[in-house]
Design a protein that fits this description.
single chain, 337 residues
């Protein structure tokens, strides 16, 4: 059984389209329309109907490059581990000693445990290398930040620098508990998280993290503890507050000066206040920032592709998206090692 921590709900996405762009490679006219749209907003959500498809990723990379080259983006916020994305940011700013495929795999540890891809593919490698080259040749550089918290092994490993031998043993025990918990969900089903043995195992890991924080916490390791606490808190919270936590992680970068692009699933980015479930990231952003927030979905919902790439708006999704880029999703990306 596979469990996915990112809820895409692609079956519900975009049966009707607001503004639609159809092509694998966009025309200059369409790039200009996208640029004009984004220039009116300081927070841009750029979605995808499903993760890890070549058509979606290639199109998003093209759009982001165009916006960067036209100085319309300062920060790219990924639906990805806060601490693993920090490694990528170091990489695009010149620290080439970082193992890029390993860092991309670490962006979502539950996906990696399932041997499922998210960012660890050649399409994203090429994009990261492009960002590195761009930053090297420009004074105004792009910053990569993570807003998700789907990695526990990386922060635990990094905490060993601050720890005694006894504390390192506790760190290893904590990782073993979390490994066992995640593996049991993958090998069984998601409902196992309601069983008392599973809950007790998670709570023991939570207590180990709390005790470790009491002993070694400082400003330098704050981000490590934050991701650990967010990851472990998520699983025993009946509200499953993933989007609200991503919102909290994102807001420090929305400073009124920087232009922020959020790379995430359509589902998370939608302005969808009537969704019968936990409030989405896009709803939080729309409530707080209003007209400053713009959503561009990427989808594969129309199969007769027109030469007229951007169509007039249709009312059905005008409250969720400002624009839809409609492209063939293509094959699934290939996981790199």
């Amino acid at each position: 059984m596979k469990f996915i921590t990112t809820i895409t709900f692609s079956a519900f996405i975009l049966p009707f389209l607001f503004e639609i762009c159809t092509a694998q490679t966009l025309s200059q006219k369409d790039y200009n329309k996208i640029l004009n749209k984004t220039n009116n907003h300081t927070i841009i959500g750029l979605g995808e109907a499903e993760h890890f498809y070549k058509g979606y990723y290639n199109t998003k990379v093209e759009v982001v490059k165009y916006l960067i080259n036209n100085e319309s983006i300062d920060i790219i916020a990924l639906e990805a581990s806060v601490n693993a994305t920090a490694l990528l940011n170091n990489y695009i700013n010149g620290n080439i000693t970082i193992d890029l495929p390993q860092a991309l795999t670490a962006l979502n540890e539950p996906y990696a445990l399932q041997e499922a891809g998210l960012y660890n593919c050649s399409e994203i490698v090429e994009f990261i290398e492009w960002l590195k080259d761009y930053n090297h040749s420009h004074n105004k550089t792009i910053k990569l930040v993570g807003i998700d918290f789907q990695n526990y092994s990386l922060p635990l490993e990094k905490l060993k620098v601050y720890s005694s031998k006894h504390q390192i043993e506790k760190i290893d025990q904590t990782k073993a508990l979390l490994d066992s918990s995640m593996r049991s969900v993958i090998d069984s089903n998601i409902m196992i998280i309601t069983s008392q043995p599973w809950i007790k195992r998670l709570q023991l890991a939570q207590n180990y993290i709390k005790n470790l924080k009491d002993e070694i916490y400082n400003g330098a390791n704050q981000r490590l503890f934050s991701e650990l606490e967010q990851f472990t808190t998520l699983w025993d919270n009946p509200m499953f507050p993933r989007d609200s936590i991503m919102y909290e992680n994102l807001t420090p970068y929305i400073d009124g000066k920087s232009r922020v692009l959020i790379w995430a699933a359509n589902f998370h980015l939608e302005k969808d206040p009537f969704f019968k479930g936990p409030k989405k990231l896009g709803v939080f952003l729309n409530e707080k920032y209003g007209e400053k927030y713009c959503v561009i979905g990427v989808s594969d919902q129309i199969h007769e592709y027109s030469k007229n790439l951007i169509h007039p708006p249709m009312d059905q999704l005008s409250d969720k998206y400002e624009m839809i880029i409609n492209v063939p999703k293509g094959d699934k990306c290939v996981i790199i090692n």
